[in-house]
Amino acid sequence: MADKTHGATQPSGQRPPFSPVIALLTVSAVWDARLNAALKDLGLTTRKYGLLAHVQATPGISFSELARRSQITVQTAHTAVKTLAGEGLVEDATAHAGAASDLRVTTKGAAALAEADARLAALDEVFGAGVPALSSALHGLHEQPFGEILQQD
Q1: Quick check: 105 and 61 in contact, CB under 8 A?
Q2: Burial status of residue 141 (CB atoms within 10 A of its CB: 0-12, 13-18, 19 or more)
Q3: Tens digits of per-residue pLDDT, 103-152?
Q4: What is the pLDDT of residue 6?
Q5: Which of 49, 37, 39, 32 is nearest to 105 (CA)?
Q6: I want to staple 105 with a disulfide (CB 3.0 to 4.6 A). Which of 14, 16, 33, 109 is the partner?
């Protein structure tokens, strides 16, 4: 019996060829779990941390822009912000139907974000010390992974 991997047929029981995509996803899963563990007692997850950071970086950000930057749907952004607001981490200064949102991080949210930033910096230091070449290679990729190549999908 043969497995299909990367368009090639492989004998059963044999490892598929190296895939940088699979390697990056594996490394990502490991470090996502570490970051989630570091943020847990702050009441944050990786996603909540990212959303909170976007709101702090751009006070008054719209749900559409927040969703675009976070690569989630607008509906998911609304749900997540509702959760963050319920936890006292963000507020919508307008918060009435028909008005554009004016999302802002609260004092409690800013404190949680500052502590989360410190914990992330500690993880970044460990990661960078362990794999400095990879750390360097990843610099800037979160902003423009491959230019327009990924925008075509």
Answers
A1: no
A2: exposed
A3: 999 999 999 999 999 999 999 999 999 999 999 988 887 776 565 555 55
A4: 55
A5: 49
A6: 109
Q: Which of 127, 120, 145, 129 is nearest to 20 (CA)?
A: 145
Residue type, 121: A
| DSSP at 15 | P
Task: State residue 13 phi and psi, 5-degree precision.
Answer: 85, -10
Give the residue carrying structure tokens 């995509």.
21
Tens-digit pLDDT profile for residues 9-57: 667 788 889 999 999 999 999 999 999 999 999 999 999 999 999 999 9
Q: Would you call 111 helix, strand, or coil by DSSP?
A: helix
Q: Which residues contact 127 (CB under 8 A, 6 or more apart)?
A: 31, 135
C-alpha distances in angstroms, 140 versus 58, 94, 133, 135, 137?
19, 34, 14, 10, 8
Continuous segment of H or E residues that includes residue 10: strand 8-11
8 A C-beta contact, residue 109 and residue 99: no
Rounded CA-CA distance 107/113 in Å is 10
Percentage of the chain exceeding pLDDT 70? 82
